[in-house]
Amino acid sequence: MPGVERTLSIVKPDGVEKNVIGDVIRRFEGSGLDVVALKMLRLSPEEAGRFYYVHRERPFYRDLAGYMSSGPVVVMVLEGEGAINRVREIMGATDPAKAAPGTIRADHAESIERNIVHGSDSSGSADFEIPFFFPEVGIFSR
Ligand code: UDP
Ligand code: MG
Fold first, then answer.
1. CATH number of the domain at 4-43+73-138, out of 3.30.2000.30, 2.60.200.40, 3.40.50.150, 3.30.70.141?
2. Where are the domains of the chain?
3. How many CB atoms lie within 10 A of CB 52?
4. End-to-end Cα, the chain, rounded Å
5. The pLDDT of residue 142
């Protein structure tokens, strides 16, 4: 058992545009996760590039920074038992064509890039991504 974890999720610009903020949060809450921090903001291309720095050598990096800064996003911290993998399962695979039926990406995403939602992929990623957006005093464990 991984125990209680925190993970960062983002409703990406296409998710905000499609009015699925509530649907994404409902799915997370419905699986027993707690929202312990939440806000809407718009990333600059530089900030988006820093957030996705791990992908700096990938061919899609520049387009990804452009997409992620193209409109407002909703960022949140989710807390609960096995939160990191639970969020990844609810999201579905990166490519919506490969995402399992009933996942957020299978239901809403239009392409491997414009795929609605982000979730930390490991505890190491969560340790970088959560403080990227939220100071510890801005997180409300219950
Ligand atoms: N992405 C892309 N093309 C690819 C792979 C990824 O545009 O071939 C984008 C997509 O928005 C993805 C993000 O880059 O969500 C980060 O990629 P990663 O492999 O970390 O996927 P994720 O963890 O989001 O499933
Ligand atoms: Mg990732």
1. 3.30.70.141
2. 4-43+73-138
3. 17
4. 20
5. 85
User: How many Å apart are CA 133 and CA 90, to the nearest integer?
Assistant: 22
Mean pLDDT split into 10-residue runs, the chain, 142 residues: 93 99 99 98 98 98 98 99 98 98 98 98 98 98 89
Mutate-to-test residue for ligand 1 from 94, 98, 105, highest number of ligand atoms within 8 A of CB: 94
- Please identify which residue in the block is written with the tokens 């919506």: 96
Question: Which residues sit with their C-beta closer than 6 Å to ligand 1?
Answer: 55, 60, 64, 94, 112-113, 115, 118, 121
Q: pTM for this structure?
A: 0.98
CB neighbours of 75 closer than 8 A, spacing ≥ 6? 8, 9, 10, 38, 39, 40, 41, 133, 134
Strands in 117-119's sheet, in edge-to-edge order, are 34-41, 73-81, 4-11, 117-119
In this structure, how many other beta carbons lie within 10 angstroms of the beta carbon of residue 121?
A: 16
Q: Hey, which residues does 73 pair with through a beta bridge?
A: 41
